[in-house]
Prior knowledge:
The complex is a heterodimer. Chain A is mainly α. Helices cover 59% and strands 0% of the residues of chain A. The N and C termini of chain A lie close together (8 Å). By secondary structure, chain B is mainly alpha-helical. Chain B folds into three domains: 6-188, no CATH class; 189-226 and 245-263 and 440-506, no CATH class; 266-437, no CATH class. The A-B interface holds A 16-17, 38-41, 43-44, 46-48, 58-60, 62-64 and B 140, 144-146, 279, 283, 294-295, 298-300, 302-303, 308, 311, 320, 324, 327-328, 331-332.
Amino acid sequence: xxxxxxxxxxxxxxxxxxxxxxxxxxxxxxxxxxxxxxxxxxxxxxxxxxxxxxxxxxxxxxxxxxxxxxxxxxxxxxx
Amino acid sequence: xxxxxxxxxxxxxxxxxxxxxxxxxxxxxxxxxxxxxxxxxxxxxxxxxxxxxxxxxxxxxxxxxxxxxxxxxxxxxxxxxxxxxxxxxxxxxxxxxxxxxxxxxxxxxxxxxxxxxxxxxxxxxxxxxxxxxxxxxxxxxxxxxxxxxxxxxxxxxxxxxxxxxxxxxxxxxxxxxxxxxxxxxxxxxxxxxxxxxxxxxxxxxxxxxxxxxxxxxxxxxxxxxxxxxxxxxxxxxxxxxxxxxxxxxxxxxxxxxxxxxxxxxxxxxxxxxxxxxxxxxxxxxxxxxxxxxxxxxxxxxxxxxxxxxxxxxxxxxxxxxxxxxxxxxxxxxxxxxxxxxxxxxxxxxxxxxxxxxxxxxxxxxxxxxxxxxxxxxxxxxxxxxxxxxxxxxxxxxxxxxxxxxxxxxxxxxxxxxxxxxxxxxxxxxxxxxxxxxxxxxxxxxxxxxxxxxxxxxxxxxxxxxxxxxxxxxxxxxxxxxxxxxxxxxxxxxxxxxxxxxxxxxxxxxxxxx
Lengths: 79, 513
């Protein structure tokens, strides 16, 4: 799976989790850019990502993610 | 030894002199010796109580080294699980044993047979609520490899967990955040030292000038005749004002003292009363406890295997949305229970904390679409300043109501008092105007000082919101202005501070948790 495909799939997951069809993701998108992305929805989001991509993230990665670009890196490394 | 006593100031002065005169590589030893003395002084030189801390720290040190050396995942998980359980069990045993005894006796009485179990006579070791969570956090960080290298020197780990400024009321430090300054080569910086001193004075101002004055009025309200009617919310607002001045003042003192040693401690408050929702408030009040619960309790719970099964079950039976929401509610329920339980073994803390989380789930999540529709129908401009102010006030009131349960003698007393607000068919506004609120042991002068003190806190918050650090702002304008502000603070503390016999201040509220 290349980076564009990862981003396309991630966009679908984000739109689904945050109930917002208007979400567009970039490498630099952070929690500050999406209204409902807080510490609680963060873990819901990561669970959805784990399920859709069939990967498993460690606690260190979960705590230290800075932006969507880093999330895509993590997915690419786990696939 | 309270951190607002002359004894503590002299102790800190001596320790600072030794620390900065000592060669850089040996400074941590000075801090270790100073922290050891502080712990002994705070436990009335009870070596047995201090031994509990030393044994727990040594157990964690060994477990962390073991976790890194073991090769099998199962063995690592078992060792971590055993150590975390032991640490938590010791804390619960000391702090909450009475809670279990009371409940067993209560259930027994309900069933017609009073077991008559006696309450334990022991007191919780000083700082146990704080160093236990710090040690658990360290071990889990090693387990998850957030800490790259576990500390090999047991004495250094003792210092990390027992570093004296954080033992009174936190904050909960993380190893990666403070170990470079604790064990590294910290250089003297006169600007940082001045900033530390200013922060320390600002904390003393909040505690001695404001909080200890409000404490008199709060005690008169809560410790006198049972509160009823409109006095209940009025008392709740006074209590939250006292608690904020007391706890945030304590944090200013602690962080300021630590800054004098060149060790940066994590912030515990970030202007909580400018929060427009409870979930934002939760991230700005007692922040390090919130981060601790999120990283070491909520996330592991939500990521656990059993939660995955819950998620799957919900998805199969109730759909995708439920598979996201139900695990979140379960995680929040567990967090709520633990927050309440950590504050003390009593239903009043658990209920108060539960009320906060309930309002957060109901108002912030479940009813969000309803509120959105309502504001649309009423043509409310949700970006307007008046609406933001209303949201801030609503958030502060909800938080005050939930925290007020901590101040009642028991859970049922709090319930009865709040019930009276709803059941009084005609609200008696007289109690707010007939002098009841003005006759609480405070003079008009005291009330004026409190009001001026809060105006100063509000003004500093506004400056922080616009410019960041106020100390840096003053320093940039002119060092003379910076020194002038320190002098004014010092004079305010000396002249307006509320001192008891022997210049002893009242204990901090959070030191009791």
